[in-house]
Amino acid sequence: MIEKNTCRIAALVVLYLLLAQASIAADPPMARSVGQTVYVPIYSHIYSGDRERPVYLAATLSIRNVQSEGAILITRVAYYNSDGKLLKNYLDAPLELPEMASIRYVVKQSDKEGGSGANFIVEWRSPRKVVPPLIESVMISTQNQQGISFSSRGRVVSERDGKSQK
Q: What pLDDT was estimated at residue 54?
């Protein structure tokens, strides 16, 4: 029974990844921005089977400065649980991310506080209009000879207007 459920999960993950690849290919060109607030889904666990058995996941938040025209400033990286409670602020001070550089933040597989609806809020800014960074999460778990992994892309929830000096 467990093997049948594991096969179903694996098939669903493969289907999800194929659909995700198709949507990536269809992404329109990115408009330039001076800053954004980005919501990124993170799953510290998901559920399997009719009994909703939890599968605990390690999650990595990746922020990639995809432009070669200069650094951006990461001003906030905040981790929230399924209930919207702030669990951790990852930055004590703004962080400069050089061109073509990336940074990662890891939620350990043993950290079960986030839940299946956990998320990050990432805020960034730049003194001039730039191509926005690629912000996504990758979740993974391996048990015995079974493995599961998937990714989520961040969604812009607000644009910075370029006039405020925040």
A: 83
